[in-house]
Design goal:
The protein is 38% helix and 19% strand. The protein is of the alpha/beta class. It contains 7 helices and 8 strands, in the order αβαβββαββααβαβα. β7, α6 and β8 form a beta-alpha-beta unit. It has one domain.
Length: 177
Amino acid sequence: MNLDYYSVFRIHKKSLQHTSRDTAKTPVQFMTLDTRKVVDFDEVKTSVLSNAFCVSNECARSADALLSTAKEEMLMIEFKNGDFSNIEISQKANNSVMLFNYVTGEQIDFTRKNISFVLVYNEDVKKLNYMESIALHKAKLSKDGIRLFGTDDLKGYSYKDVYMIEKKKFDEFIRKF
């Protein structure tokens, strides 16, 4: 799919680095230095909600970036440089699918076959409870992985696959695409 066909995607292109910025930190921090162009999905959300529905962008959450890869796949990427809740991640992932389908006119089966969700988190900041710590340890040992942080039901339902990537491993991961 050529994302540039959709004007709202085309006009909201930024670098992946820009979409990974954390403006809450001083100085501003970035979770990646990758400069490839992506769709700034937060800006798409703001544009669509204000123009099509005349509502504030605060009423919905979305992922940070949409990357179209050379392998004809797409990655919906959410960067979390601080602590977060499972509900927040689940809402962002699900709202992003609905927004993507609204803009493109596609159905859920398209996203299920063509888009993977990527959660990039700062392992030095995310506060894990005891069960999450155990599950994360098991996920690192497993080939299939265990999905945490509200992502366990996304694979096969609304996304092709789900990846949970530590910030320090993201640049290596993204080079595969």
